[in-house]
């Protein structure tokens, strides 16, 4: 399979790099487009095809990953729709807020379309990617899922949950960063220099997340292991809850969801 990534920006280049690093396909089988190609020199050096001609990229590929900004998708679809072939191509869109029906309407063909919502950890092959599909067969969905499995973990969801997936999985990276930053600020106040506090905070969050994923555990079970009766963990946790910690996170998630669905 040959893959075209239309829109070689942050996400597009991260996908290309991840696919190459994982050995999922050869660099020569990947084409990345953008209007100003100078920023894609590193991909060209790796052996990818790099140019601005979206139509040529579509004609030379089987899987078309659309990774332009939401306000640019219509123009790119208008450009390539005549070259899209329902018997050959699968279109994969990572564009936030654009529904499969919108894409199919813009293409004016019942093309197999897969919508994927990764997060920015895709740059280090640690994304959580939620996937939804329409008019794609099992084999096509599995191929796309396998592609994103090279870039982290995947789950197939109903497209109706894509806004929720965006909030929890994609915006979630920003929420986690803010949590880590608050830990760093607290860590500095209790004596660490910024660099050491950053390492301790980030590695601790990484370890906590891996505990849940690798042992299929529940957060409260892991909390019970840390909290010594009358100890400092429970004192801190309870104070955080008195200040509305869990409630503020839940309200934040709801505010994001309200914004994305309005
Ligand atoms: N899941 C997540 O966490 C996130 C998802 N996203 C989604 O991913 C998509 C991409 O975001 P991101 O990578 O950050 O955006 P970028 O702006 O970094 O990348 C988009 C790229 O598209 C290129 N482009 C624009 N017009 C065209 C065109 N006509 N033909 C070919 N290339 C074109 C631009 O380059 P040039 O101007 O040189 O053409 C640019 O490099 C967005 O739709 C966004 O919604 C974004 C961020 C986070
Ligand atoms: O903030 C946003 O609107 C988008 C959604 C996912 C990441 N960025």
From TrEMBL:
It comes from the Bacteria. The keyword NADP applies. Keywords: Amino-acid biosynthesis, Cytoplasm, NADP, Oxidoreductase, Proline biosynthesis. It holds the Pfam family F420_oxidored. Residues 159-260 form the Pyrroline-5-carboxylate reductase dimerisation domain. Catalyzes the reduction of 1-pyrroline-5-carboxylate (PCA) to L-proline. The keyword Oxidoreductase applies. Its EC number is 1.5.1.2. Pathway: Amino-acid biosynthesis; L-proline biosynthesis; L-proline from L-glutamate 5-semialdehyde: step 1/1. The gene is proC. Residues 2-95 form the Pyrroline-5-carboxylate reductase catalytic N-terminal domain. This is Pyrroline-5-carboxylate reductase. InterPro entries: 6-PGluconate_DH-like_C_sf (IPR008927), NAD(P)-bd_dom_sf (IPR036291), P5C_Rdtase_cat_N (IPR028939), P5CR_dimer (IPR029036), Pyrroline-COOH_reductase (IPR000304). Its main location: cytoplasm. Belongs to the pyrroline-5-carboxylate reductase family. It is found in: Cytoplasm. One of its GO terms (molecular function) is pyrroline-5-carboxylate reductase activity. Transmembrane segments: none annotated. It catalyses: L-proline + NADP(+) = (S)-1-pyrroline-5-carboxylate + NADPH + 2 H(+); L-proline + NAD(+) = (S)-1-pyrroline-5-carboxylate + NADH + 2 H(+).
């Amino acid at each position: 399979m040959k893959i075209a990534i239309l829109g070689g920006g942050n996400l597009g280049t991260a996908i290309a790099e991840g696919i190459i690093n994982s050995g999922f396909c050869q660099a020569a089988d990947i084409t990345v487009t953008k209007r100003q190609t100078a920023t894609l020199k590193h991909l060209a050096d790796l052996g990818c095809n790099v140019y601005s001609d979206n139509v040529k990229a579509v004609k030379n590929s089987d899987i078309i990953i659309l990774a332009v900004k939401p306000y640019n998708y219509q123009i790119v679809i208008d450009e390539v729709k005549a070259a899209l072939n329902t018997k050959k191509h699968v279109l994969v869109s990572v564009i936030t807020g654009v529904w499969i029906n919108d894409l199919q309407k813009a293409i004016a063909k019942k093309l197999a379309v897969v919508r994927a919502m990764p997060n920015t950890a895709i740059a280090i092959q640690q994304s959580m990617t939620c996937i939804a599909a329409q008019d794609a067969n099992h084999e096509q969905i599995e191929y796309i899922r396998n592609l994103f499995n090279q870039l982290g973990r995947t789950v197939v969801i109903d497209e109706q949950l894509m806004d929720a997936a965006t909030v929890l999985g994609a915006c979630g990276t920003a929420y986690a960063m803010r949590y880590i930053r608050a830990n760093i600020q607290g860590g500095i106040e209790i004596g660490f220099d910024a660099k050491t506090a950053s390492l301790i905070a980030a590695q601790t969050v990484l370890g906590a997340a891996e505990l849940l994923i690798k042992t299929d555990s529940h957060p409260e079970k892991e909390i019970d292991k840390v909290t010594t009766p009358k100890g400092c963990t429970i004192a801190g946790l309870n104070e955080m809850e008195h200040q509305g910690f869990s409630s503020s996170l839940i309200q934040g998630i709801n505010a994001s969801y309200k914004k994305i669905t309005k």
